Amino acid sequence: MMTPPTDDRFEEVFRGQYPRLVGLARRILGDDREAEDAAQEALIALRSDPVMGRSDDDVAAWLSRVVTNGSLNRLRSRRRAEVRTQVVGARDASRADVGPDDPIEGADERDRVRACLAILPERQAAALLLRHAGHSYREIAVALGVATGSVGVLLARGERAFRQAHEEMSR
């Protein structure tokens, strides 16, 4: 049964979920400040969403999904901005008769992982992130809005696509 949300309810959810949400976003983004922003944006969205009146498990799953999707969107935006910067830099470098640097060369492993996650289909990336954050198949299913039996398939496909992308980027 849905109950109308109250300020006390929101504060309870905020205090209980904020550290977990920041941690999830940090694993995706690798940046504390951006992770806090992503968690805060999800909680702001929660305040006006009908899910607020549902059970704690439903709210937690909804928040996980919103933070994961928001963080992946931030990661994609960051990646697009980096590519635009590299294109401009490459254009400037080519004018100076200097070849552009390989964008992957010199990047550490976390950057490669984030780049691989950014190119995966959204559900696969989210499933991998949630699983590696310690969530059960049931929790992942609720967060992604899929059947529990589909989680294993999403994870297997995601892992295969991730491995392939990582190998290509490592060359």
Radius of gyration, in Å, reads: 19 Å
Mean pLDDT across residues: 81
Percent of residues in helices comes to over 70%
H-E string: HHHHHHH
Judging from the principal axes of the Cα atoms, what is the shape? globular
Q: Name the CATH superfamily assignment.
A: PhyR, sigma-like (SL) domain
Low-pLDDT windows of residues: 94-107
Q: What would CATH call the class?
A: Mainly Alpha
> In terms of structural class, how would the helical and strand content be classed?
mainly alpha
Strand tally is: 0
Q: Give a short account of the largest sheet.
A: none
Between the first and last Cα atoms, what is the distance in angstroms?
A: 54 Å
Under CATH, the topology is which?
Butyryl-CoA Dehydrogenase, subunit A, domain 3
Give an account of the 3D structure:
This protein has 171 residues and is mainly alpha-helical. It has a single domain, classed as Up-down Bundle (Butyryl-CoA Dehydrogenase, subunit A, domain 3). It has 7 helices and no strands. It has helices at residues 7-29, 32-47, 56-95, 109-119, 122-132, 137-144, 148-170. Helix 1 packs antiparallel against helix 2 (32-47) and helix 6 packs across helix 7. The longest helix has 40 residues, at 56-95. The chain is globular. It starts with 6 loop residues before the first helix and ends with a helix.
List the helices and strands and how they pair.
Layout: H1 7-29, H2 32-47, H3 56-95, H4 109-119, H5 122-132, H6 137-144, H7 148-170
Brief rundown of the structure:
With 171 residues, this protein is mainly alpha-helical. The protein is 77% helix and 0% strand. It has one domain (7-170): PhyR, sigma-like (SL) domain (Butyryl-CoA Dehydrogenase, subunit A, domain 3, Up-down Bundle), CATH 1.20.140.
